[in-house]
Amino acid sequence: MEICECNGALNAIASFFVVWGYTRGENSRKVKESGLVERLIWRRALTKALLYKTLSLEHLKDHTECQGEMATNKHHCSSSFTFLLLSLLFLQFYSGLSELQLNYYTTSCPRAEEIVKEEVTKLYQKHGNTAVSWMRNLFHDCVVKSCDASLLLDTAHGIVSEKTSQRSFGMRNFKYISTIKEALERECPATVSCADIVALSARDGVALLGGPQIEMKTGRKDSLESYATQVENYIPNHNDSISLVLSRFQSLGIGAEGTVALLGAHSVGRVHCLNLVERLYPTVDPTLDPEHAEYLKHRCPTPESDPKKVEYARNDLETPMVLDNMYYKLLLRHQGLLLVDAQLVSDPSTSPFVEKMAADNGYFHDQFSVALLTLSENNPLTGDQGEIRKDCRYVNRD
Q1: Tens-digit pLDDT profile for residues 142-183
Q2: What is the spatial distance between Cα 101 and Cα 372, in angstroms, rounded to a whole number?
């Protein structure tokens, strides 16, 4: 191989690595967002500059000619590949500084995760349903473009809140996010992001509900905007087909098994009658257990439910505030509340996972952990992207 050919190969490999290193875990859509393209170009240029500088110092007397004996060429390529390896390690280290990582706040706010856990626990002891809210917050925030706390923004200063979307119906306890944020601000002002509060509170909420202990990475930054006009394009409706639901999750890197596991979050909490009456009136959905349908009609006595009234039914009457596999057992008894729940049993791509999770709570918890982690790391803002809000409800004004 001649020197010019060797350099061409190195240039191609360096370019590939820079793109690969920055796009692993991200799809092409994500690479095009948030200034990543510009950062890729910069990093590729840096690699080339370092590479050719070293080659010129050690081996190349004339950058415009390709000459020399075969032994010399082999020496050039061997040394060049040694340098390339060092460059790759440098790039991996550099990019790692701006990616999510475990114990991100070890230096800047050592007690950050402990404070979140303390506040989440205190809130759970006073208001048990907050733990359910934290899980739902993570889903609604991360599914819509990025895990960036855009969900928490209130309508103000030209921003329309995502909380105004019909997909956010029934969500609550946002005020307690401020309780957690205030505790963190007292300890470490302007250090812990609201996006990480969403992630860590979900982690701790899952544990308090009897779910798995999950190690959650941190280092997210907060969005500068709301995606209120796009929420319905990302979050499936409870009456959507299972194929559409699977497609939405697949776009996040979560397959059928993970989707079935995440829907196990329906094991806790409750469903407003507004989202149930279509399965009860004017006739009962034939896929719904008749006896359970009578219970639901008792909870939702009219086909026109008032969204402002507290009219709801529990997802799980046996272990209503425990994140366990009872949800799947109820599905097999045709007692799922939402249409999407019922479809998990009837669809051949999901029913085997329903049966397996119904039989093994440990398996459910394992798959739930994996899927939740994948969701929590969806296209986060990191490094110099976004900001750390002082108040999770508003973009910083100064």
Answers
A1: 999 999 999 999 999 999 999 999 998 889 899 999 999 999
A2: 16
Residue 366 marked in a binding site: no
Has 162 been labeled as part of a binding site? yes
In this prediction the pTM is 0.78
More confident residue, 352 or 41: 352
Active site residue 140: yes
Which residues, in sequence order, are bridge partners of residue 221?
A: 381
Tell me the C-alpha distance between 326 and 316, whole Å: 7
Please name the residues in contact with 32: beta carbons below 8 A apart, sequence gap of 6 or more: none
- Rounded (5°) CA angle 314-317-319: 110
Q: What is the token pair recorded at 77? A: 């390529």
319 is in an annotated binding site: yes
Cis ω before 380 (30° cut-off from 0): no
Domains of the chain: 3-96 (no CATH), 112-233 (1.10.520.10), 237-376 (1.10.420.10)
**Long-range contacts of the stretch 122-130 (C-beta < 8 A, 24+):** 123/176, 123/179, 123/180, 124/205, 124/208, 127/173, 127/176, 128/321, 129/172, 129/173, 129/269, 130/173, 130/176, 130/205
360 is annotated as contributing to ligand binding: no
List the catalytic residue out of 76, 140, 238, 365: 140
Residue in this structure with the two tokens 């996040």, named with its chain if needed: 252
